[in-house]
Amino acid sequence: MGSEPREDPRRELIDLPVLHKLKLYSTRTTFYLIGRDEKKTFWRILKIDRTDPKELNLFEDPTRYTPDEISQLKKWISRGNQEHGGLRAETTCYGIIGFVRFLGPYYMLVIRKRKKVGEICGHAIYGVAESQMIMVPYPSSETRVSSSAAERRYRKLFNMVDLSKNFYFSYTYRLMYSLQKNICNTERGKIHDNSMFVWNEYLTRGIRGILKNTVWTVALVYGFFEQIKCSVSNEEFILTVIARRSRRYAGTRYLRRGVNEQGSVANEVEIEQIVSREVPEGKKIPITSVVQVRGSIPLFWSQETSVFNPQPDIILNNTDENYAATKLHFENLRQRYGKRIIIMNLLKTGDKDHRESILKAAFGKAIWFINRQTKKDSRLKAIHYDLNKHFKSGVDGAFEQLCVLGKRALDLIDLFFCEAPLGIGAEGVINDSFLNNPIMNQDKEETIQENESLKADIHKLQSGVLRTNCVDCLDRTNVAQYSHGLVALNQQLRTLGITGPPIVDKDNPVAKKLMEVYENAGDAIAIQYAGSEAHTKMFSALRGEWNMMMKHRDIITAVRRHYNNAYQDGEKQNAINVFLGKSGPQLGRQAPWELGSDQRNTRRTSSNLDIETLRPKISRSLSDNLLLLGELNLEEPILENPEPSREGLNGVIWETTSESGFIEAEPTSPTFHSAIVDEDHLRRTGSRQMLQGSSSMSDFLGLDDVPGFSHSYNARFTPADEMFEICSSVSSDNMFTDLDESITSTTDTNILEFHSSSNQPGRFIEFPLVDGYSNEFTQWVLHEKSSLSRAPR
């Protein structure tokens, strides 16, 4: 007897009204965009008027056509326009990026080629491989302005944003949101394309306003996406890392610093690490995710540089005495991720010219000021760790401490874990794409009803976020975020039930592969913000590959970055502003090349940037950009809708009453006395936190057992490009206090927990040192080692 056919919970999602492929046809007066679904079950038509060069006139035909009906319709249109050449095929595309107008006609941007880069719960994720800009009006005397010098310059600026690099989209998955928000958010009828991570929001505003849907457009996320298939100890899992850049205060390294008046920070990037298991068809997918963020220090500050000064002074603007913009920034984080906000500040404390020390002190004061006005359970948890200094003292020891801090943060905020059916959330995406438009609702067959088989079983929720920063949020931040990702991967594998011997080695294949992915992400973010790849010093040192050749490579990277910052960032910033609709010819605004640097960003006292002549001295912006007329979208709130959250794991919070605002993860003096420590809590949350196989504490410490990390197992990694080879070939990618200057040490310590009664800045409580580590901490470590050695294997 044959077995019963397996019930596929995705069967109701096969014939979704999603347009995957579009063909553009033209007559003298009209563009006809004919779109079809992936299964070729229905066709739709969008008509674009070409007679008015200054207005965008669109009409969506509500009819769902069959192949024969479409073929017949094209013949009728061609015959009706025979006098003017009939109906001509223009191009094939895979979605509308948007419409834009400068001084003359409207242009339509479409995706000419796409590349499948991965899947999330069965939803295909694509990268833009090629785009095309098409002038909408038929060429006439009224469109001659399109050939004017100013129009050409606008087009050139606009096209400087290379859509074929690091722009991603999905037809059925809201890529602008984390996995947790996608699965937990059950709101309907919400506009998602105005999210902070959708870079073509401005370009689609016109078509969305006319059609009242997003059926024809795609939402582009800018940043990074990489997915690999891993096999460890014969157990397979999929690792995905996504970086989403915010568009709200986007720009280049020196022209976007700090925070603006709306609470948005420069170089704000959300990093999501997703791990899932492969399961038989028809079963729910066990999947976990961890989100962390990076972003410029949320104060008003800037830097002025010349071509002769690669390390300019940091200039603070202290007019925001109540830290209103800083508070807005952290409130936004709470709304998006939950109330537990943990700050990892990596600024230098011993820099000779005190550039970063000044910024660190100001940031600490801001945190202290905000926490005074905040309920205890919602206060910011902050720690300062001078990564540059600690790496000089010992690479392995510094990285181990980063992992300890990452483990502590993960204990507080937890991770997201659920079991989700294939294709989950597609019904919400489709329903929302119509924005309550009756076109969809008039056909009852298109209304997708939810049932239990299409719902996820949610087991854990992330209820907060780790926010990491250095000055640029690039090189040091990359290493710190990798350490948090490694600790998170440990927990994610355990959560998914992937077991193995209790051996952790940062040199194992899985850890190395994760490092490679984070290096790739860091390079992409660095190129987008600073114009060069990230520096490789710290990652190379971790691999034991820091040699003269790598030093020369980093010198070249530094030179390239400085050249781009000095000579090209002005034009690049103009291009980003035009692309995002923050500058342009509408509403009487000046052309971006006519603006001095003081007009690109407010709170400037002088202007000496001339984009035409590129004078040697380049004045950089203060960071509280005043939005130009027409930039604000009145439909878009400052705060994102919060993700569902709950309390994280109970534990001690990094907190103090010190004015400096941080816990110092620094060496200390024996003259400081030990604080009262909850030893049971340390054993419960801090045990086995260091990596084996490295110097310093590695002889007796380890992170929680990461299954399959032993060198005795063969790990396999398959890039998503190979996994989706067929699709890819389609022609469519407490708070701290400042240390006294007299306190020095060559060894590193870490404060896991303390309660301070001091209100005086410049003082803090730490464990007294014994050979570089506190006596209490060392005794606890030895106790844990003894316990581990007796544990059954």
Per DSSP E runs of 2 or more residues, the count of β-strands stands at: 26
User: Given the structure, what is the number of helices?
Assistant: 19
Shape, principal axes of CA atoms: globular
Give the termini distance in whole angstroms.
Answer: 45 Å
Helix and strand content put the structural class at: alpha+beta
- How much is the radius of gyration in Å? 28 Å
Q: Averaged pLDDT, please? A: 75
The amount of helix comes to 25-40%
Low-confidence stretches: 1-15, 438-450, 601-657, 667-713, 723-793
Biggest sheet, in brief? 15 strands, mixed
User: What portion of the residues fall into strands of 2 or more residues?
Assistant: 15-25%
Organism: Brassica campestris
Keywords: Hydrolase, Membrane, Vacuole
GO molecular function, one term: phosphatidylinositol-3,5-bisphosphate 5-phosphatase activity
Membrane topology: Peripheral membrane protein
